[in-house]
Amino acid sequence: MYIKNSKIIVIKIGSSLLIDKSKKIRKKWLLEFSKDIKELLNQNKKVIIVSSGAIAIGCKKLNLNKKNLKLDKSQAIASIGQIELMNLFNKNFSKKNINISQILLTLEDTEQRRRSLNAKRTFENLFELGFVPIVNENDSTATTEIKYGDNDRLASRVAQISGADCLILLSDVNGLYTKNPKFDKNVKLIKEIKNIDKEIERISTKSTSEHGTGGMKTKIDAAKICQLSGCYMAIANGLLSRPIIQIIKKNNCTWFVPKISKLDARKKWIVGSVSPKGELIIDDGAKEALKKGKSLLAAGIKNVYGKFNKGDHVKILDKNKEECARGLSSFSSNEINKIKGHHSSSIKELLGYIAKSEVVHKDDMVEI
Fold it and tell me: Which residues contact 279 (CB under 8 A, 6 or more apart)?
């Protein structure tokens, strides 16, 4: 049900799904998985894939043991494996006429507001072009201090940034059990979790697969991010053929239900942001438009105060200097000074390049 009702879906693939225990690439599985993606696209859903495997595939190519690698060596191997990984996706997905693109992200790209906004716009533009973004952590440049260390948390941040309705973590287990199924046969699969309490924390294991770096604990961490982002999250068995269709048909997985809606999560994030970097003074017409839930356009802006960058948090004041909204600016203060009072159709000519038509998009704004 959650997948069927979702418009944007993020799917995370673990290394163990791409490479089996004998270190062979699971080409047949990937081809079957591409059929799932094609079916979702045919339903007009937007899909992002977060894939592990660059280092594992690099190690396979060079016949090295991943466990003995130091960080600087693994960075070099990741750059080799990344090409192999994308070639693997391209070869299989092209058979289903699926266009793919590559996005490499670091922790800073998702934690810094300006960079996360750029990533969000990139996802939106790729959707418009009809491409499926394939995301991986930029292992070639990320240091220990700025690494996610696993793609579960990265996937949850990608889901948060892209405004996804649903995140599916494909793993080598069906979901979260009451006890570790490897050591106890008398276990039950927990189908739905609304609150991650101490008991859920306790039963999450720290076990890792041969190729992966994330255990159940990292998936619980990812679920916490999703629950506060208004995004449903599933832990499901990806070893099955056509894993997404299996979830839709049998629902044999663990679902984490969000605590708040996507819109509430975004508004809470904006209102709770650090102190605003600047102020925009707007006219009465723009104020009325904001009350009706419209975006703020350049034509309605009278003055700009403060110096800020694209993506920064700004106050929106009326002509009496009374605050009426807060939001994330799609332009820098310098850019807004050039386009204020002008129609959106003039922005390209005034700035010399193509830009968004909204200075503050309605989805990035909270009325006070």
Answer: 304, 305, 306, 314, 315, 316, 317
- What does R_g of the chain's alpha carbons equal in angstroms? 22
Burial (CB count <10 Å: 0-12, 13-18, 19+), residue 25: middle
pLDDT < 50: residue spans in the chain? 145-146, 206-214
* Residue among 2, 146, 24, 181 at smallest CA distance from 88: 24
Backbone torsions φ then ψ of 299, nearest 5 degrees: -60, -30
Q: Six-digit token pair at 120?
A: 């969000």
What pLDDT score does 79 carry? Answer: 87
What DSSP state is assigned to residue 35?
Answer: H
pTM for this prediction = 0.76
CA 64 to chain centre: 31
The answer to whether the CB of 309 falls within 8 A of the CB of 346 is: no
Q: What is the pLDDT of residues 324-337, one digit of tens each?
A: 999 989 999 999 99
Q: Is the dihedral of CA 228, 269, 132, 84 positive or negative?
A: negative
- Backbone region of residue 63 per phi and psi (left: phi > 0; alpha: psi in -120 to 50; beta: other values): left
The answer to whether the beta carbons of residues 25 and 54 sit under 8 Å apart is no
Q: What is the Cα–Cα distance from 99 to 10, expressed in whole angstroms?
A: 16
**Architecture (CATH level 2) of domain 8-266:** 3-Layer(aba) Sandwich (3.40)
CA–CA dist 7, 37 (Å, integer):
13
- Report the topology of domain 273-367: 2.30.130
- Domain locations in the chain? 8-266, 273-367
